[in-house]
Amino acid sequence: MERDLIIKIAYLIASVLFIVGIKMLGKTSTARRGNFISAVAMLIAILVTLLDRQVLSFTEIFVTILVGSVIGTVIAQRVEMTSMPEMVAIFNGFGGAASVLVATSEYWRMAHDAGYSMEVVVGVTIVISVIIGCVTLTGSLVAFGKLKGLINGRAIMFTGQHALNAILFLGALALSVLVVLEPNVELWMMGVLFIALLLGVLVVIPIGGADMPVVISLLNSYSGIAACATGFVLNNQVLIIAGALVGASGIILTQIMCKAMNRSLVNVLLGGFGQTGSAATTDGGEEIVVKEVGVEETAMLFDSASSVIIVPGYGMAVAQAQHIVRELSDMLERRGTSVKFAIHPVAGRMPGHMNVLLAEANVPYDKLIEMDQINDEFANTDIALIIGANDVVNPAARTNPGSPIYGMPVLNADKARTVIVCKRGMSAGYAGIENELFGYPNCLMLFGDAKSSMTKVVGELKELMPA
Amino acid sequence: MNAESLIVLLYVLVLASFVGFELISKVPPTLHTPLMSGSNAISGITIVGAIVAAGPEDMSVSKWLGIAALLLATLNVVGGYVVTDRMLQMFKKKKK
């Protein structure tokens, strides 16, 4: 009796620490300590669970935890900051998988008592846990594959897709009812598992590359909800509290991302954005005529500029150009030029992706300015340098009601005196639409790989202004 | 599980969700990625269930499922916290 009480009190303490930890995670000054506190909460929860009466054999548990910890630490230490979206995606998947396995394990244990009749509440919580966990697992694996480029990052659509999803969903529900009614028939459970795994794949494949921030946030939320559902299965409050915190956080991030793209969540989830936009490219009529610029000229422009705003995008991450960009910014600052970074909420492949990359390159976080704060500054800025961003600076979002991205909040980079766009080629952005900014009279195109272009510009600048 | 304990759990769920919404709606965009990986680590709390599921002495299917869950949950928890710490350590204000 006493042992159970100790466990319950420890879980309560852990829950409180999780809440405190996540609160501290919300402020830059306390974030690191917040993460530590939440890790302590986890440790308390783990240690005290080892006291549980049902835990009788420890060898396998310790070995498994040891192996998992070593692998987890190695992955976490080695992963490149550019690959954070993939890492978060795959870890979401692990979380979902763990929930499914726990719920299935519980089901197996109970269903194997002959003649067992499952309480409806228990059955319902188990199937909910299994379905959410499975969707999180395979959905995250698909997201991981898309981000890694293992599978086509574009939206994959086929006719009858939504109908098929609806049928599968109803099928999963029907089988779930059977699981509850006939818990001894394992086939039903297998069916639920199979369909839910398939559903996870199907709901993520129609969602394309730049919508990934939304998908990852949503899957993050699901992994929390899955943990929450497992809490109901096991009648365990700490799982419910921790899971609900994660679920809420994921949902909020999802909303922020949707708002930043001026799209509803349903619109993102139905997918296929930009695939049907071919009409938009043609009805623009005239071809956009761009002005090219070379590295020497770019360096000279920087040399005479007194204020610069850098707009980074996913292309900077792909080219691993963040370090050389920081070097450029340091160099300009040393000669008295003001340098700021303008961060669009959906720049990159996950919320806050650019901030992490630039932090890694030692750019102080107070130099990164949010869209709403910096948009009025462009008009008084000599140069807006756009590196690997496209749709987030497309003025059509403000001016052209016919554009698919019309209404999306964008950075007003076009208002700067000179706009320099560093880009590989003339390919359209993710949304599949031309960027009319490139044809503006104040816009210059610096074609080439972001990293090598920037390296050359920095080299030229060194000659122009010897230290 | 009886109806009464289910209701208690639902109370816990609803209140915790409100706390979550309140806390997280104020997080600045700079911290979105660490928040995500940090909360991702928290979702590994399923590890508690996995330990119990992996606990029995006899080697049953149920136990093996528990061990698999334990491995994945540990990866999730340890990897999530370590990478979040690594990231947060890089966030610096301007020196001097």
UniProtKB/TrEMBL annotation, chain A:
Molecular function terms, GO-annotated: NADP binding; proton-translocating NAD(P)+ transhydrogenase activity
Stretches that traverse the bilayer: 6-22, 34-51, 57-76, 88-108, 120-142, 163-181, 187-207, 214-233, 239-258
Documented EC number(s): 7.1.1.1
Boundaries of every NADP transhydrogenase beta-like domain copy: 8-458
Cell compartment(s), UniProt: Cell inner membrane
The reaction(s) this protein catalyses: NAD(+) + NADPH + H(+)(in) = NADH + NADP(+) + H(+)(out)
InterPro entries: DHS-like_NAD/FAD-binding_dom (IPR029035), NADH_DH_b (IPR012136), PNTB-like (IPR034300)
SUPFAM superfamilies given in the database record: DHS-like NAD/FAD-binding domain (SSF52467)
Keywords from the UniProt entry: Cell inner membrane, Cell membrane, Membrane, NAD, NADP, Translocase, Transmembrane, Transmembrane helix
Chief location: membrane
A GO-annotated cellular component: plasma membrane
Membrane topology (UniProt): Multi-pass membrane protein
Organism domain of life: Bacteria
Pfam families membership: PNTB (PF02233)
Function: The transhydrogenation between NADH and NADP is coupled to respiration and ATP hydrolysis and functions as a proton pump across the membrane.
Name of this protein: NAD(P) transhydrogenase subunit beta
Organism field: Pontibacter diazotrophicus
From TrEMBL, chain B:
MF GO annotations: NADP binding; proton-translocating NAD(P)+ transhydrogenase activity
Enzyme's top EC category: translocase
Alphabetized InterPro entries for the sequence: NADP_transhyd_a_C
Keyword Cell membrane annotated: yes
Keyword Electron transport set for record: no
Residues that span the membrane, as ranges: 6-24, 36-55, 61-84
Alphabetical UniProt keywords: Cell inner membrane, Cell membrane, Membrane, NAD, NADP, Translocase, Transmembrane, Transmembrane helix
GO annotation, biological process: NADPH regeneration
Annotated NAD(P) transhydrogenase alpha subunit C-terminal domain residues: 10-93
Job description of the protein: The transhydrogenation between NADH and NADP is coupled to respiration and ATP hydrolysis and functions as a proton pump across the membrane.
Protein name: proton-translocating NAD(P)(+) transhydrogenase
Organism, scientific name: Pontibacter diazotrophicus
Organism classification: Bacteria, Pseudomonadati, Bacteroidota, Cytophagia, Cytophagales
